[in-house]
Amino acid sequence: MKGALATALFIASAAVAGFTEPACATDLMRAAQDGDTAKVKLLIEQGANINDRDAHGMTPLMHAAGKGRAEVVKLLLESGADASAEAGETALYDAGVTAQLLARARGHTEVANILKRTGIAGRRLWKYMVIAIWTLLGTFILSMRVSGTHEQDR
Predict the structure, then answer these.
(1) Which residues contact 28 (CB under 8 A, 6 or more apart)?
(2) Are 83 and 43 part of one and the same domain?
(3) Are the CB atoms for 31 and 39 separated by under 8 Å?
(4) Residue 154 is part of which domain span?
(5) How far is CA 36 from CA 9, 69, 85, 96, 109, in A?
(6) Is the dihedral of CA 48, 52, 53, 59 positive or negative?
(7) How far apart are CA 32 and CA 119, in angstroms?
(8) Among 2, 22, 32, 118, whose CB has the most other CB atoms within 10 angstroms?
(9) Are 53 and 86 in contact (CB under 8 A)?
(10) 68 and 79: one domain?
């Protein structure tokens, strides 16, 4: 969470200072950032990599979310974009920056809420629940083996 807060503050300060968005590496990223829904759809139909990354680890979904392009975000999500993808740590962003964080940090509440509804948090919660269940199960089995050993010693 500390990294996410630092990233949000950095993004806000970069916007105030007039820094620009990182250069888009692909036509799909450029179209997503520009909000060109028709071109995004065409590029996806032509087989563009929907989860491709630029030098900063950003995906087309992150580019669209960072600019508040709600229709493009919806299209990318419907086409299978990974909403839980995290940008790698670069000079521009901390590791762990997601499309939802970019949208929220830049004041694009509608887009942030669209991304939130994709259930990213729920999937992460499920992942932690599975880990917790396996941990409890392992602890239970280990305790049964230990208690079984003590009963055999008697």
Answers:
(1) 40, 43, 44, 48, 49, 50, 52, 60
(2) yes
(3) yes
(4) 120-154
(5) 28, 9, 22, 27, 20
(6) positive
(7) 22
(8) 32
(9) no
(10) yes
- Could you tell me if 151 and 111 lie in one domain? no
Entry pTM: 0.65
69 and 107 belong to one structural domain: yes
Which one-letter amino acid corresponds to residue 135?
T
Q: Which of 5-19, 31-45, 47-61, 106-120 has the lowest mean pLDDT?
A: 5-19
Specify whether 30 is located in the same domain as 95.
Answer: yes
Convert the pLDDT of each residue in 59-117 to its tens digit: 999 999 999 999 999 999 999 999 988 887 664 556 678 898 889 888 999 999 999 88
Residue 60 and residue 15 in one domain: yes
Q: Which two tokens stand for residue 147?
A: 């208690």
Cβ burial of 30 (10 Å; 0-12, 13-18, 19+) is middle
| Measured CA angle at 40 (ends 95, 18), to 5 deg | 50
| Same-domain status, 111 and 140 | no
